[in-house]
Amino acid sequence: MHLIDPRLWTASFGTVRRPPKERRSIHSIIVHERYANYLYNHEYDIAVMKLATPLSFTSEIHSVCLPESSQVFPENTSCFVTGWGALREDGECLSPCLPKKTPIVLKIIGTNTCNSKEVYNGAIIHGMVCAGYLEGKIDACQGDSGGPLVTPDSRGIWYLVGIVSWGDECAKPNKPGVYTQVTYYRDWITSKTAESSPSH
User: Is domain 78-184 given the CATH code 2.40.10.10 in the classification?
Assistant: First the structure.
């Protein structure tokens, strides 16, 4: 099991990063056992972390539900991505590092389309999902990695569809963002969070 030293990290919560509404130390971080941190290798790009102390949800700090492994988010599903990343390719986070004021609305792009020669030419494999627009212009960007791609169901319950993983620069035509597909890793997440849960 690949572990990262949790003493090197903290988790921030809220709508402003500096200062955050809440901050927590990290008890443990578990990276997927099959993840290999090689350049351009994005397979198994997922980790879970356990906070050192509990967090209470408020009007400014919300939770999002994990989908079941069998849950399907079809092509053209509208999703929303937020983050503190750059607003343009090679750009920087703008002080005071606010998240994108309006969540970016993206559409899920089918794997067959995303794997076409003019898009990613077969690079989209199990555990990945594309979202964005083939015409470009709207996308996650540098600094958004690890951020949530979410969508509400008909009852208004929000689900985590994906995690910002990789792409070819930002918002280029035929180069939509690629996200870690949460449903693919749902059982893995369950196995790791169950291991770290208190016995009571």
Answer: yes
State the distance between the two ends of the chain, measured CA to CA, in whole angstroms: 24
Tokens, residue 164: 């910002």
Say if pTM beats, i.e. exceeds, 0.85: yes
Q: What are phi and psi of 196, to 5 degrees?
A: -95, 0
* Cβ-count burial 26-52 (b if 16+ within 10 Å, e if not): bebbbbbeeeeeeeeebbbbbbbbbee
Q: Find where tokens 């169950």 sit.
A: 194
**Contact status, residue 64 vs residue 150, Cβ threshold 8 Å:** yes
CATH of 2-60+185-196, one of 3.30.720.10, 2.40.10.10, 3.40.800.20, 3.20.20.140: 2.40.10.10
Amino acid at 87: L
Convert the pLDDT of each residue in 152-199 to its tens digit: 999 999 999 999 999 998 899 999 999 999 999 999 999 999 854 443
